[in-house]
Design a protein that fits this description.
This protein is of the alpha/beta class and 673 residues long. The protein has 18 helices and 24 strands. Strand 2 and strand 3 form a beta hairpin. This is NB-ARC domain-containing protein. Belongs to the disease resistance NB-LRR family. It holds the Pfam family WHD_DRP.
């Protein structure tokens, strides 16, 4: 549902802006803060009535128009915030009077805020008309946040399943299953009856059956609740897959619909990583988070909800069980595209020339030559996915890409001739994801001067233009003052002096580092108080101190195995939860050091080389007191020493060495990667 996405984005944008407006009563900025807070309240109010309005729009044109009016209002507010807040931001300075750089800015600032307030007054008038329509149509407010539908089954609880393979649409197998269930409790008997009825209404189509089962899973575990689903299926005039998919989509909570539709933006058969979705949804302000709320956790909940409904397929999971990557069935992806085209949630290269193209906020294309990259053609475009399959050739990205003035998210995947230096003109770009893109020419270093960029994902081993390609060597210095996530920048590009200026970093992945980088990272003050994840690749022996990083919970270290690595040269962060060690050479038992990490929950050791005399000792009363998951992979593993006192909370042991003499305690919880 595009309405929910629009309202959510505006709410989160207003919350973020309001949090940064700390001003005194009587100032123009105080009036601005009041307007922003009104926007937040009004959008939350409209969002709370979406569920009831959605259920009533089928029988009323007025209600259907009401929903459209709410969406259009939210989108117009988003445009106003994008247009005027950036200009207001430009007048901010530093210090006690930080909202004005100098006296001349006062007039500019006053004019901008007055224009902004005038625009909001018109918005308020439209909001009053919408509210009057809501009351006239008797649209109720949702007081439970949209989750009243159910006592959703915990996916980690035991489900009523047989130990045999799942069978769909075969009468003989259903008879066999019925005999088994009749010998069980009464709840199981109900499953058999509903299952046969459901299969009949789904026309025996496998995907339709699976999706229908997903709807059943969201209901309370009783016959009445499940019969509700059968009644929904009975409303379909045709027993075909598209009807069942549509019914399942309409059964989604309005809040969840935009997240499902978003999967249609990705390429066919693509394995979609969780972190890709996090960055896209954060950039579009579809999710809001704070210090106590990790965006990955928020997205993980959304993905589990969609997975429980069988609308997406989980491909891989992280060691802690959370979703790492997922896929979507081709028919479901096509359904997402059709629904998105219908309500203008996003567009594809197939509808580039339609009348609604100028209103698009999201676009996915397969060929850059089909798209003009003209800001006049797509003045409202925020998100752009480019998937180019040009065979052995190289696709061209035109210089005009820098004209997309409102673009906040850009993902490139495929083979491209070059990245135009005009990329620097994208003043509102929040996320640049080129991990899966290859370039024939080196990347322009201007991407390291984009001051509004928050997420830069380069991919390991990307090439950059040389110093000879630019006349201003001073601009080669990395200066990304707002960067929060920076993936796979070589130390040859990210100098140690630049590293000290990245004070907003939450995630950093760095390779080709030297002693200067280590000294800066190990300094008395952390490079960023906000750093939560750090990945480093060592090419030489070194000592590093991370004891000042109080929020650092994930640490991934890789080393070239041509020199012994001693863990006692590392001062680990005090609140480390997840530690990964890759391709290291150990001449001493590394567990002597690691067992002292009192908060460590996940330990992953992969591709490491051990001296023949080494044993890995996990025993002892105080050894790994919080460890829950242990993974040792891709190497010749030495003898493991385990007792009943060490690792008291361990519940999973991941290992791919079948001939290893595994202690009985680990064998009971052993799984293959």
């Amino acid at each position: 549902m595009a309405e929910s996405a629009a309202l959510t984005a505006v709410i989160n944008q207003a919350v973020g802006i309001s949090a940064n407006l700390i001003v005194g009563t009587g100032s123009r900025l105080y009036r601005l803060k009041e307007d922003i807070e009104w926007i937040e309240r009004r959008m939350r109010h409209f969002k709370s009535c979406l569920k009831d309005a959605d259920s009533k729009q089928g029988g009323s044109h007025e209600v259907a128009n009401l929903i459209i009016d709410m969406k259009d209002l939210a989108l117009d507010i988003e445009d106003i915030l994008d247009t005027y807040l950036l200009e207001i931001e430009s007048h901010k300075g530093k210090g006690p009077f930080r909202f004005f750089k100098h006296a001349a800015c006062i007039l500019c600032y006053g004019g901008t805020t007055n224009t902004f307030s005038q625009k909001i007054e018109k918005i308020k008038s439209r909001a009053q008309e919408i509210e009057a329509t809501r009351e006239r149509c008797r649209i109720n407010l949702d007081t439970d946040g949209g989750n009243a539908d159910s006592e959703v089954w915990n996916r980690r609880k035991e489900f009523l399943v047989t130990t045999e393979s799942m069978v769909v649409g075969r009468e003989d197998k259903f008879q066999e299953l019925e005999e088994k269930l009749r010998s069980s409790n009464s709840e199981c008997k109900m499953i058999c009856v509903v299952g046969e009825a459901g299969v009949e209404r789904c026309g025996g189509l496998p995907l339709a059956i699976v999706v229908a089962v997903g709807m059943l899973r969201q209901r309370r575990r009783n016959k009445h609740a499940w019969n509700e689903v059968l009644d929904i299926l009975s409303t379909s005039s045709e027993n075909n897959c598209s009807k069942i998919l549509s019914l399942s989509y309409n059964d989604l909570p309005p809040d969840l619909r935009p997240f499902f539709l978003y999967f249609g933006l990705f390429h066919e058969d693509e394995e979609i990583s969780c972190d890709e979705l996090v960055l896209a949804w954060v950039s579009e302000k579809l999710i809001q988070f704070n210090v106590n709320q990790n965006p990955y956790d928020i997205v993980a909940v959304k993905l589990e909800m969609l997975s429980d409904r069988n609308l997406i397929q989980v491909s891989t999971r992280n060691l802690d069980g959370s979703v790492r990557s997922c896929r979507i069935h081709d028919l479901l992806r096509i359904f997402c595209i059709e629904m998105s085209n219908e309500n203008n949630f996003f567009g594809t290269h197939h509808n580039i020339h339609t009348n609604s193209f100028s209103m698009l906020r999201r676009l996915t294309i397969d060929d850059t030559s089909q798209f003009s990259f003209s800001n006049s053609a797509t003045p409202k475009l925020r998100t752009l996915f480019c998937f180019c399959n040009s065979g052995e050739g190289w696709s061209l990205i035109p210089n005009e890409i820098g004209d997309l003035s409102r673009l906040t998210f850009l993902k490139l995947s495929g083979r491209f001739e070059r990245m135009p230096s005009t990329i620097r003109n994208l003043k509102k770009l929040v996320t640049l994801d080129i991990r899966r893109a290859d370039f024939n020419c080196g990347l322009p270093r201007t991407i390291f001067r984009m001051k509004h960029l928050k997420h830069l994902l380069l991919g390991y081993g990307k090439m950059f233009e040389s110093d000879k390609c630019t006349n201003l060597n001073v601009r080669n210095e990395v200066y990304l003052r707002n960067i929060e996530i920076l993936h796979w920048v070589p130390g040859t590009i990210l100098k140690a002096s630049s590293l000290q200026k990245l004070s907003n970093l939450r995630e950093l992945r760095l390779y080709e580092i030297n002693d200067q980088h280590i000294n800066v990272i190990s300094g008395k003050a952390p490079i960023s108080e906000k750093l939560q994840e750090l990945r480093l690749e060592f090419t030489q022996r070194c000592s590093i101190s991370l004891s000042n990083y109080g929020h650092l919970s994930k640490l991934f270290l890789t080393a070239e195995p041509n020199f012994p690595f001693k863990l006692d040269t590392i001062e680990f962060p005090p609140n480390l939860i997840y530690l990964r060690l890759w391709f290291m050479k150990f001449t001493e038992d590394p567990m002597k050091v690691l067992k002292e990490l009192t908060r460590l929950e996940i330990l992953e050791v992969a591709g490491c080389i051990y001296s023949q005399s080494i044993t890995l000792d996990f025993s002892g009363v105080n050894s790994f007191p919080e460890l829950q998951v242990l993974a040792i992979e891709k190497s010749e593993i030495p003898e493991l020493i385990v007792d009943q006192t060490g690792m008291p909370k361990l519940y999973k042991f991941v290992c791919n060495q079948k001939d290893l003499n595994v202690p009985e305690r680990l064998r009971e919880i052993m799984v293959e990667p």
